[in-house]
């Protein structure tokens, strides 16, 4: 297998296994070359190559490839394994970055192919996220016996924190509140990212000035002290007391001791988790599709219909489904997607349904892969009668019911609704979304056709938080885009669908994180190697 690493701004080490032996007198001397494909193009560009490992058929490469990772894009990668110097081709593997991230523990093994009639071995890819110091610190300080600066009362002290820069200058990074009329203030606890405090360098100087607040802004300097993140962090086990010194006073007065002391009462560190942390910890994305079968779409057999698929081109519905589904499926281990239709009269009795399974199996509405969803969708177009009205609430409530069964962070649901327009059950839909906003789920709405989509913009909630009967949505969980904004004049369908997927999926990681954060759910640790 090939070992490779991805860093997400990701690494891959890669490890090929059981490579073809191309050297007559010894084992092969393999090297792995990574190619990346631009979004919406078929062109491959070399991104980098590993070191050469002499004389082995089972190399473990050390050099890592560092890539920027975007959940909302299909990032296609190609790994070519060749023999150094001779340039003999030992095989290749194609993979999407999302597949490696979504694989268990970020480890993916793929067969190498490309040498006719030969088994080329496998390549093992590992992905890990580069930590960019995501910790957040909470600390609380108090002071004792500070110098008295005000003529009539005591001082009104506050603290100013500075981070030191590479060039020896200081940048302000935090100010505490002012505590009025005391020489023994206790400031409120505050939080600050470690990056802001020391730029991730634990030994860098952190300077803290103590001031007496004055109404006119000419705050009086009481004194200063210096520390570092590493020193501050020791306060997790003990109080740390700092002397506040005023250099000018120290020079003038022989008997000067200090201008008071500051005590660090508490110091705690929390990590800010990322989307990748949760996926690596085993969180599964469950993808459900709901397609609009209302009569306003036009008869599917007519070229003017939004559901019309010519032999040469998929319908807007099918294009939107593929664009979004092909990215999400990398994060769903069983690749089984429940798929529903709404707004049609369904056989055998012609009842109107707003959540009929596209595969006609009420017991198990799941389709195998995005291709399975497409097949069932095309099959339904031939068997149901397009009708109305356009009701979203039933299918939203259906997915919400499933999401409510597992709320421990191991499952997260994404519902894709593709519709041609004007919604009939707006009040019920708003109520359903407000309820769903407390659950592990997100909703993507793609509007196809020429209709005005004002109602969808309201559901999107980017401008004004969605509410229903006085209840506000706990989180913003809806993302809406009109399909027509992505129809490329040049006719480059691949590129326009990549743009559509990018825009509708971009908010999903943040929405997942907001759910986990409000529920205080931490990612499970990936099993040790």
From TrEMBL:
<dbReference type="GO" id="GO:0005544">
    <property type="term" value="F:calcium-dependent phospholipid binding"/>
</dbReference>
<keyword id="KW-0106">Calcium</keyword>
<dbReference type="GO" id="GO:0046872">
    <property type="term" value="F:metal ion binding"/>
</dbReference>
<dbReference type="InterPro" id="IPR037768">
    <property type="entry name" value="C2B_Copine"/>
</dbReference>
<keyword id="KW-0677">Repeat</keyword>
<dbReference type="InterPro" id="IPR002035">
    <property type="entry name" value="VWF_A"/>
</dbReference>
<comment type="similarity">
    <text>Belongs to the copine family.</text>
</comment>
<dbReference type="GO" id="GO:0071277">
    <property type="term" value="P:cellular response to calcium ion"/>
</dbReference>
<feature type="domain" description="VWFA">
    <location>
        <begin position="286"/>
        <end position="487"/>
    </location>
</feature>
<dbReference type="Pfam" id="PF07002">
    <property type="entry name" value="Copine"/>
</dbReference>
<dbReference type="InterPro" id="IPR010734">
    <property type="entry name" value="Copine_C"/>
</dbReference>
<dbReference type="InterPro" id="IPR036465">
    <property type="entry name" value="vWFA_dom_sf"/>
</dbReference>
<protein>
    <submittedName>
        <fullName>CPNE9 protein</fullName>
    </submittedName>
</protein>
<dbReference type="InterPro" id="IPR035892">
    <property type="entry name" value="C2_domain_sf"/>
</dbReference>
<keyword id="KW-0479">Metal-binding</keyword>
<dbReference type="Pfam" id="PF00168">
    <property type="entry name" value="C2"/>
</dbReference>
<feature type="domain" description="C2">
    <location>
        <begin position="104"/>
        <end position="242"/>
    </location>
</feature>
<dbReference type="InterPro" id="IPR000008">
    <property type="entry name" value="C2_dom"/>
</dbReference>
<dbReference type="GO" id="GO:0005886">
    <property type="term" value="C:plasma membrane"/>
</dbReference>
<dbReference type="InterPro" id="IPR045052">
    <property type="entry name" value="Copine"/>
</dbReference>
């Amino acid at each position: 297998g090939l070992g490779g690493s991805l860093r997400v701004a990701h690494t891959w080490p890669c490890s090929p296994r059981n490579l073809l032996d191309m050297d007559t007198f010894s084992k092969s001397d393999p090297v792995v070359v990574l190619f990346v494909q631009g979004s919406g193009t078929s062109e491959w560009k070399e991104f980098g190559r590993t070191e050469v490992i002499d004389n082995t058929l089972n190399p473990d490469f050390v050099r890592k490839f560092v890539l920027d990772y975007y959940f909302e894009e299909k990032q296609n990668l190609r790994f070519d394994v060749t023999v150094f110097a001779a340039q003999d081709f030992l095989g290749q593997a194609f993979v999407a970055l999302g597949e490696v991230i979504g694989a268990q523990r970020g480890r993916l093994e793929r067969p190498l192919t490309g040498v006719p009639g030969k088994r080329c071995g496998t390549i093992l890819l590992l992905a890990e996220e580069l930590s960019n110091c995501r910790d957040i610190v909470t600390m609380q300080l108090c002071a004792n016996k500070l110098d008295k600066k005000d003529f009539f009362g005591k001082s009104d002290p506050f603290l100013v924190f500075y981070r030191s820069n590479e060039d020896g200058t200081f940048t302000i990074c935090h100010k505490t509140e002012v505590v009025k009329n005391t020489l023994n203030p206790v400031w409120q606890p505050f939080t600050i990212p470690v990056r802001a405090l020391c730029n991730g360098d634990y030994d860098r100087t952190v300077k803290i000035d103590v001031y007496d607040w004055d109404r006119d802004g000419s705050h009086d300097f009481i004194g200063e002290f210096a520390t570092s993140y590493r020193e501050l962090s020791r306060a997790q086990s003990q109080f740390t007391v700092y002397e506040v010194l005023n250099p000018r006073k120290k020079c003038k007065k022989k008997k000067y001791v200090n201008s008071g002391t500051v005590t660090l009462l508490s110091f705690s560190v929390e990590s800010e988790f990322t989307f990748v942390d949760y996926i690596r910890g085993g969180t599964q994305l469950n993808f459900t599709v709901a397609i609009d079968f209302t009569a306003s779409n036009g008869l599917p057999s007519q070229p003017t219909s939004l559901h019309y698929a010519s032999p040469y081109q998929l319908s807007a519905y099918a294009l939107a489904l593929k664009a979004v589904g092909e990215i999400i499926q990398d994060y769903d281990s069983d690749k089984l997607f429940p798929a529903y239709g709404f707004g049609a009269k369904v056989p055998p009795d012609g009842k109107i349904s707003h959540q009929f399974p596209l595969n006609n199996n009420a017991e198990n509405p799941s389709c195998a892969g995005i291709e399975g969803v497409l097949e069932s969708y095309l099959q339904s177009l031939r068997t149901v009668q397009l009708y109305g009205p356009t009701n979203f609430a039933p299918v939203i409530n259906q997915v919400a019911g499933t999401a409510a069964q597992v709320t421990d962070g191991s499952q997260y649901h994404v519902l894709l609704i593709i519709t041609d327009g004007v919604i009939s059950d707006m009040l019920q839909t708003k109520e359903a979304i407000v309820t769903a906003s407390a659950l592990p789920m997100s909703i993507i709405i793609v509007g196809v056709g020429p209709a005005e989509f004002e109602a969808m913009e309201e559901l999107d909630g980017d401008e004004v938080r969605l509410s229903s009967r006085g209840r506000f949505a706990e989180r913003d969980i809806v993302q809406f885009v009109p399909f027509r904004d992505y129809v490329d004049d040049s006719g480059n369908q691949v590129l326009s669908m990549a743009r559509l997927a990018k825009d509708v999926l971009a908010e999903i990681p943040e929405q997942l994180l907001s759910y986990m954060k409000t529920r205080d759910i931490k990612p499970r640790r990936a099993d040790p190697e």
